[in-house]
Fold ABC transporter permease.
Amino acid sequence: MRSQMRIGLVCAFLVLGGLSRIAVSRPAPAVPPDVWPVSLGERAAHRLGVGPGDPLDLSVHPAGPWQPARVAQVYRPVRYPTEVGREPLEIRLHLPDLQALAGRGDEADSIVIRLRPPGGPAPARTGRAATAGEATAEVVTRLNASSLGFRAYTSAELAARNSGPFEVIARFHRAIGAVTVLASSIFLVAIMTLRGEELRRQVGVMRLIGVSPRTVVGTVLVIAAGVALLGSAIGIGFGYLLSLAINAYYRSLFDTDLVFSRITPRLLETSAGVSALLGIAAGAVTAWRVLRRGPLEQLGR
């Protein structure tokens, strides 16, 4: 005989880490009228040892009253960066069932509105169709002007309000990047200085046979930029492999699909540009050190 598992939502919150984001679920398979269909997150289903079709009893109080329910589906919830490291257990019910279970109706902590892409004729005052951002801003303005006791935000505004810790981390990463660039530029200048000493005799011969200093400088700059770009390419390849390893490890550790490390085209362009500029600067310093000596002195005479 299959035994039913009784779940007190309050007890589950205290013991297992909490049920969060109770929301409306998608249509579920047909069940008896007195048995509610519910959807469980993967973590909740694993902790409770249940799957699709298993019975549950729900209550907001450990002592009951209990409401029969049945697991309609197990889903993988979308995790947000602020939830990494936490272990919330999620259950979703139809809104009427949730109101009946909680004993309260017409109450909500937050409502998410998704707008369709704007269409139709362009407004007469602008002569063009509104973009998605403009349409969203207009809806938010109208909602906030309605004075219904709530505050509306766009998704970008909510992200900005909740991204304080991540902004601190981003600044810390930028500081590390600046220190790394400074150290690499010093290393590049040292390499080009050694290379310039190796080219000293060749430069002396070139100047004796009539090669102009401008040509010598151009050659040194090309060599320096090439060395810098080669180092940048090696660093990008190593960073890409390291990014793959970081994502694989932390996705497995936190059981999430979040991307913890990403190498963007803008980052590649910035790294290549900075490398080329540093190479040219190092080449200019090396060329100046080489050309300040006379041709005979460069040949050791």
